[in-house]
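Field reference: "sequence" (input) and "structure" (output). Example, Vitamin B12-dependent ribonucleotide reductase:
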Amino acid sequence: MTETASGSVERGGRRPRKGLKMKRIFTKPGVHPYDEIKWERRDVVMTNWRDGSINFEQRGVEFPDSWSVNAANIVTTKYFRGAVGTPQREWSLKQLIDRVVGVYTKTGLENGYFAGEEDAEIFDHELKHALAHQVFSFNSPVWFNVGTMSPQQVSACFILSVDDQMESILEWYKEEGVIFKGGSGSGVNLSRIRSSKELLSSGGTASGPVSFMRGADASAGTIKSGGATRRAAKMVVLDVDHPDIEEFIETKAREEDKVRALRDAGFDMDLGGKDIVSVQYQNANNSVRVSDEFMRAVEKGGDFGLRARLTGEVIETVDARKLFRKMAQAAWECADPGVQYDDTINDWHTTPETGRITASNPCSEYVHLDNSSCNLASINLLKFLKDDNTFNVADFVKLTELIITAMDISITFADFPTEKIGETTRAYRQLGIGYANLGALLMATGHAYDSDGGRAVAGAITSLMTGVSYRRSAELAGVVGPYDGYARNAEPHKRVMRKHAAANDDLRTIGSMDAKIHAEASRQWSECLKLGEKNGYRNAQASLLAPTGTIGLMMDCDTTGIEPDLALVKFKKLVGGGSMQIVNQTIPRALKQLGYQQEQIEAIVEYISEHSHVVDAPGLRREHYEVFDCAMGERAIAPMGHVRMMAATQPFLSGAISKTVNLPESATIDDIEQVYMEGWKLGLKALAVYRDNCKVGQPLSAGDGSKKQEPKEQAKEPEVKVIEVNRPTRRRMPNQRPSMTTRFTVGGAKGYMTASSYPDDGLGEVFLKMSKQGSTLAGVMDAFSVAISIGLQYGVPLETYMSKFVNMRFEPAGMTDDPDIRMATSVMDYIFRRLALDHLPYDERAALGIFSAAERAAQQRGEDPAALQEAVDREALAQSAPIEVAPKAEAPTVKELTLESHQRFTADAPLCMTCGTKMRPAGSCYVCEGCGSTSGCS
């Protein structure tokens, strides 16, 4: 099982060391891994989200036939190097993997990692097999840079430092800009900077860290879309005992108030609007670093001292509970700040003799020394679920060994954005192995995400992964030496290893699956402690749980990182364009595991396909509902369910977990306080929350644009009022009215729609005619037209019909001949999207996220789209004749609208800076399923 250390290699005249004797996992001697794969050629064509023009095209790319269209598209557009259309352009996954793995193998052989060339070849073949079969993936910078003429940047996560000196602050701006320019993100703790309540040496008053955040925020806002790989991300941390902590806590919430005030005054505060740039502090995630002392004061209701930065003396005393309340209220209003639990983080710190852990990367999973970095890799857990629904423990152990070996080799050849980061990373060799598809694995094996059984499986897998990783790190230390900083940190490092092993001993197993995994984890930790005592460790850090955004899509994972499934219904891209709705493939497997017969499974799957949830599914027992609970939808997992899952895995991770605890819009400040308090009690290292629709400047907001909602404190006795309701009256159409007829084709079926308006504006009548569809359908469409028309004349808003009929699914469906709406799930879906584009005013369409191409282009130029629409209207009036309206952008994608209509949930995610698609949560970051771009680490 373990690749033992044996043999020797001469290395540049130095004393020979033993090298690793590699063993095969997936490959066979004498057979190249590529030869066992069926390859196929595909065309990758990506269209512009604004006007439908082609913005990327590469034909004849080569991928395994098992790879989805989406995975192939993302790899082709994001990871293939070379100018498109030139011979230097990569066109096959083989070339990409060869480019990367070749550097790893060559470096490992040259630096004494392997006993001989045969072992290097085994390493090479095993890596290629695992990557080609989507068993794991390195983080994106590896695919971007390794084996190219660019600097060999392999890290995705960075932590900087800043001192209480102007030179250091300006250096922070510069270093952050360099990292952003490359498309990566960084984090920093500003607590060393004097507060605005302290004096300068010259006698003046310091401006405080929040003022310096303004300059850094502006810099990030300017650079964020300039990177070739992804938009920038940043984290700003402030200690809870900093005298400016209240200003820090309220900073982003005050800006949200400003957004609301400006919006209500008529300024363009939509995402991408020209006035939104006046809002500050929006380019960073903010977190408060809380101490055990503070949290105990909150529990007891005591006072807490805020301390001067230079002397450490208490200069102000505050009520701990009131300060904690302000944190929760600010998070309720705008999702910031998150919390980082300082004492917990540093209690698990392997290198405290070098320095404390003060900050994290933007997604909060990497927590280690200042001026350091971490490269990531994630394992696709579902690849280890065998046909008999048992977990392949042996292969998981071997693959983890292989990945840790490769990740450590990468630090040997890697380049870094600053010399300070390079020095620290080479001296401490921080790694971040993690996994994806946990949610899918649990569902497929019949485990509810929020259950003792689900948490036991997750804890056992995480413990096994980290135990193997550190055991391999100890083996590597015996081959190529421990990390440079190990000698001074040997005792605290070994102490943390014992803490991990003790947590593993305390893990309570529930079923046979987690019991088997846990038994192997115990063996691995025992061996780890023995080897570590003998050899030391090669790496100061080994594991964490990243969001796995882009690489999760690359591996065709159903779920990212530690997340549960987002929804039971997914959308699959089709060859040649378009997409189709499918029920998650893990659901039939889960139903079979739970003992259902094939006929029952088919009926339940059909029900889920229609309703997107399992409630009242035919034949499904109620005790099994919880297995199919998701992050969103009819049975959304409760916020504390997410917290408990994080707590089940945190003791087995070197770093932390990238995850946001989502709360419904109805959540209260008390709910957020409870989440933050329980996160501390359960031993988490970091925690962020997001209350649905808490932000204003969001695309596709589910809100109605009304004024700021007030926090819910306590339920009050409602006042009983008698309201007299007038019956609606019908406003009939005049005999002569303006109308517009649209000819359309949906899935090959032709039709005509005539929409008539009142002379003083307002849609009042719709007639529908389908060609060659038979008298029955023609009669149904006539009756439907009458019903809709009468409803409109009685005052039913068009938006109401949209919410009911957009994304209704039945045949005919598919491609249309309308350049504005290229795909429709039914005739109803097409009709009401077309009516919205033709008859809703700009402000109402903006609330729904529907813009014309000209309006989107205006947003990109920083102009006011509303003013553009007014100009078009004025021109139309001046000409007093029909005008050709500029092409409009597509309505929200089928996926977005289906999720929102079926689940009554709108994720307040940003639009992708690359392709314009609405992103979805991935950990505490976001990922675009259209092109694979992320807002943080992957």
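Residues 568-629 form one domain.
The mean pLDDT is 84.
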